[in-house]
Amino acid sequence: MRREIVQTLDGSTTIYLPDWEENYHSKHGAIQEAKHVFIKNGFLQFEQDEIAVLEIGFGTGLNAFITLLEAEDRNMKVNYTGVEAYPVAFDEIAQMNYVAELDATDKEVFFQKMHTCEWNFPVNLSDQFCLTKRQQFFNEITDVDQFDLIYFDAFGYRVQPELWSTAIFKKMYTALKPNGILVTYAARGVVKRSMVEVGFTVEKLAGPPGKREMFRAFKKQV
Fold first, then answer.
1. Chain Cα centroid distance, residue 191
2. Which of 38, 66, 109, 184 is the 20 to 30 Å CA partner of 73?
3. Whole-model pTM?
4. d(CA 101, CA 92)
5. What is the CATH code of the structural domain delimited by 29-218?
6. Residues near 66 by beta carbon (within 8 Å), at least 6 away in sequence
């Protein structure tokens, strides 16, 4: 599949798939979307000293890198698991401008290591951040009560509706700890129905720039 590196409206880069007319991140702003959806409405909802995060669609590592920066700032321990079936090639990663756009040149070594470290094993990138990259399909996830927070950042429903199915959200629900949270940029009615069907309580929030709404879902304590 053809792939192009493109600049989004906030100046940060992403990967564009012209055959699907789909971007890895919002064309309105890759960094803005990540901060709004996954950090503001997900990560910053937690105040404990340690948190376990599962990312569905590790991709370019943008969400993981911003989470690492936040963990360092807050002196918070993060055990981060990123699931990706088709890892992004390093020559493409080298063209991402996230370190510069986030004014994080002092943390560039962490971004590099995220993409050069071994897959399927936990790696301590810093005292605050442990990364496990898992190369697997989403339907192969079997975790039970392991994560406080899920970043659901799969390709959009328009191009891969099977990734937004009831079966996948059942796996997400099972993987979360009681009182865990799932956040996603999506806001389709069919997605909400699948979430509700497996037990999530879903709320609609204001979306990132260029998108009116997004979802945040809760696994309630039984």
1. 17
2. 184
3. 0.97
4. 17
5. 3.40.50.150
6. 31, 34, 35, 38, 39, 102
